[in-house]
Write a structure and sequence with these properties.
It contains eleven helices and 14 strands. It is α/β, with parallel strands linked by helices. The chain folds into two domains: about 220 residues, Isopropylmalate Dehydrogenase; about 140 residues, Isopropylmalate Dehydrogenase. Bound molecules: 3-isopropylmalic acid and magnesium ion. The site of magnesium ion has 2 residues, from α8.
Length: about 375
């Protein structure tokens, strides 16, 4: 198959301008590799509320259902309208809804710090080794985000009680463990599984289940780490990690911590994958960063995370490895050539060229 349907949902804030660069790159890839991409754009987030009264308009959801994958920008503008109830806000009504709706249980968050951007990392150079390169595999449809009961209730005398429930079944842990072990196999063959087995029932089940699945992957070195220690080790010796496997909430927290090591969220893509059926993996691809409303519409945002998300889409959903490699290579080339958006600009680098969103997109498109 060389024809693919892509739903492009740019969303809010910097979403539209970085999406524009991603589509620019997709069009170049399309020509160069003789592919056909049917790209349809649709509103989501506050843009969805403005266009159709809903963070995830029905037409946008229908488009996603008939597409081969979703290329997502970002949603949410904290100060936009506090009167909209939390269930209808973009985070829950669009992002969490899509995750659940499409069964996107496996969230892959690669964290890379190229050697050339060493200055952007908050850690001292001797802690960065030859540059950082790790992958956070986060379970995305279970745990405290979705467990029931989930509510806030009055329990009398003006006292309220809020309840979130952390719940995992063995099949949920098994399937994400398989994803993580398989990813480790393609990398440096080390898996660190994160849990809180010293306190939580969920942690005990997590550790037992991951250990059992690990027997099917004798070539991958498995270690277990408590989440608090994991947070500390990320600061002390991040180079020890290859693949880090986490449940939903721990993965949310640790993936941001790991991302901070890469210097800028503007560089990090992510993939959220559902089950593979008939050789097809439906996926949702988005930058790790948010809507960055402070710089939106100013041609300042770094489009690299969005463009690398395209590469992940080509790799995981479309199995177009050569095209994905071409994008990764073009991004690396643009960095080597000194192109820097503001977030990764260092005035001390004499060869650096400070550029805006569109110029960075142009440089990467040219590199393909
Ligand atoms: C993320 C985000 C989301 C999450 C929010 C926006 C709901 O922080 O993708 O990491 O917590 O999963
Ligand atoms: Mg998060």
């Amino acid at each position: 198959m060389s024809s693919f349907k892509i739903a492009a949902l740019a969303g809010d804030g910097i979403g539209p301008e970085v999406m524009r660069e991603a589509i620019k790159v997709l069009r170049v890839v399309e020509k160069k590799f003789s592919l056909t991409f049917h790209i349809t754009e649709a509103p989501v987030g506050w843009a969805g509320i403005d266009a159709a009264g809903k963070a995830l308009p029905d037409a946008t959801l229908a488009l996603c259902r008939e597409s081969d994958s979703i290329l997502f920008g970002s949603v949410g503008l904290p100060d936009r309208d506090p009167t909209i109830p939390k269930e209808q806000r973009p985070e829950r009504a669009a992002l969490l809804r899509i995750r659940k709706e499409f069964g996107l249980f496996a969230n892959l968050r690669p964290v890379k710090l190229p050697k050339a951007l060493s200055y952007a990392c908050p850690l001292r150079p001797e802690r960065q080794g030859d540059g950082l390169d790790m992958l956070v595999v986060r379970e995305l449809t279970g745990g405290m985000y979705f467990g029931q009961p989930k509510k806030t209730e009055d329990i009398g005398n003006g006292v309220q009680r809020a309840i979130d429930t952390m719940v995992y079944t063995t099949p949920e842990i098994e399937r994400i463990a398989h994803v993580a072990f398989q990813a480790a196999r393609l990398r440096r063959k080390k898996l660190t599984s994160i849990d809180k087995a010293n306190v939580l029932e969920n942690g005990i089940l997590w550790r037992e289940t991951v250990t059992r699945i690990g027997k099917e992957y004798p070539d991958v070195a498995l270690e277990h780490m408590f989440v608090d220690n994991g947070a500390m080790q990320l600061m002390l010796k991040p180079t020890q990690f290859d693949v880090m496997l986490c449940e939903n909430m721990f993965g949310d927290i640790l993936s941001d911590e790991a991302a901070a090591l890469a210097g800028s969220l503007g560089m990090l893509p992510s993939a959220s994958l559902g089950a593979t059926s008939g050789g097809q993996t439906f996926g949702f691809y988005e930058p790790a960063g948010g809507t960055a409303p402070d710089i939106a519409g100013k041609n300042l945002a770094n489009p690299i995370a969005q463009i690398l998300s395209v590469a992940l889409m080509l790799r995981y959903s479309f199995k177009l490895n050569a095209a994905a490699d071409a994008i990764d290579g073009a991004v690396a080339l643009a960095i080597d050539q000194g192109f820097r958006t503001g977030d990764i600009y260092n005035p001390a680098e004499t060869t650096a060229k400070k550029v805006g969103t569109t110029q960075m997109g142009d440089a990467i498109a040219a590199g393909i």
